[in-house]
Amino acid sequence: MLASGLALLPLLALLKDVLINRGESKLELGFDGLRQVRGTLLLVAGEGLLGAVVGTAIGWLTAVCRFPGRRWLRIAQLVPMAFPAYLLAASLIDWGSYRGLRIHGLGWAILLLTLANYSYVFLLSTESFSVSGRRLLEASRSLGVGPWRSFFRVALPIALPSIGAGIALSAMEVVNDLGAVRLLGVPSLSAGILDRWQVDGDPQGAALLSLVALAIVAVLIASERQLRQRSRRWNLEGGTGSAHVWHLAGWRAALAQLFCVLPPLIAVAIPALWIQQGWQGLQSESFAELGQLASRSLGLALIATAVTCLGSLLLAICRRWSPQPLVQQLSFIAGLGYAIPGSVLALGLIALGGPLGFSPLLLLLWGYGDRFIAVSKQGLDAALERIPPSIDETATSLGCDWLAVLRRIHLPLLRGPLLVGSLLVFVDVVKELPITLALRPFDFDTLAVRVFQYASDERVGAAMAPAVMIMAFGLLAAFALVPTLEQRD
Q1: Which residues lie closer than 8 Å to 263 by C-beta, 6 or more apart?
Q2: Stated pTM of the model
């Protein structure tokens, strides 16, 4: 109940700010607001289409086909998740400036956002291809249908719900993005909200843009939930037994290898070329300021991780022990923060905590908890669903209270998901830009904020040292997901 309230209060404060506190002022989007809505919708559509093609194709090739290097190429698809879009944009802009290339505009934004987020489509589609419709694929092969026709006529229709859910998740990241779109000069709602609030001094206008962003996100959330439910139904209808595979050789294997290696290779090459180009400048950087930035980022990340994972554990346990519909709905509401754009959440927290005199650091940690509790909670929910309820019943029949059941049974079994969830939350907090930029105290920069500030001031070379640290943390999170991907193989 408390976690759900903490998730809803900023949104209710935002709604109150728009509908009640606006006084006689007229609410309107204006010309800039319409451009930002249009820019956001174009980004969502462009990234969704390109991400669907890339993620689905690689998911099919690595799940159903067999060719040399397939296992390592499947793991490599996690690497782009280590590089936030604003870091890729800053790296490419600086690298291109030395070669006379102008990296700017909607096309580049769609490409970089796709590169940073296509892994969502890949993860869900490859799982669907691995476990769904096996009997249908075997039947199609017995009728002489080749791999491509089987893909379009059998596997793709079955996997469409999972692919759609992956597109919805990546679209939420696109709506949340602030750094890449600002650096590339693309009007978007996330940047427009902060500009209306901080630059124009128009909190009501910023709140109105926030409601438009929330409307887009609400459509994405509804679509993602419906598609996930349809995906579960397909999985239940799918056959059992060993998965059917196609063995590729010759030019077909080479083409599959090339297609699978290009996205992670480009994601690594962009910052690698940038670092190689500015290596001398990186060596001459003062590490005293970098240490201060890193200590702030790590301190915030450690506190936010501890609070968020504790909250997600309590929510997951309550959801398991109380099957009442109200508890299930409250648990779902508590996890909605991940879908809410960071700039919207920050504005809601300011509207809520500003009049009450809350500390900026408290609001910042509240924002982190709201946004990332779902990251840890999903893994815990999935792990608890694999523990038979009969184990709990046996323990309680032997005289164990709920605390003893949690300490002696659940926590040992949840050690792995808790560790992975903690690492993912930790790295997400280190990379988070919109919430940190909007809510941080004065003169309290972090690694992500400093990268964005240097890049915005066209001092991209100075952003290299904090960017390298963010990339290192991001790679840790990507490698933490490898065991999960291997279990699906």
Answers
A1: 54, 58, 77, 80, 115, 118
A2: 0.82
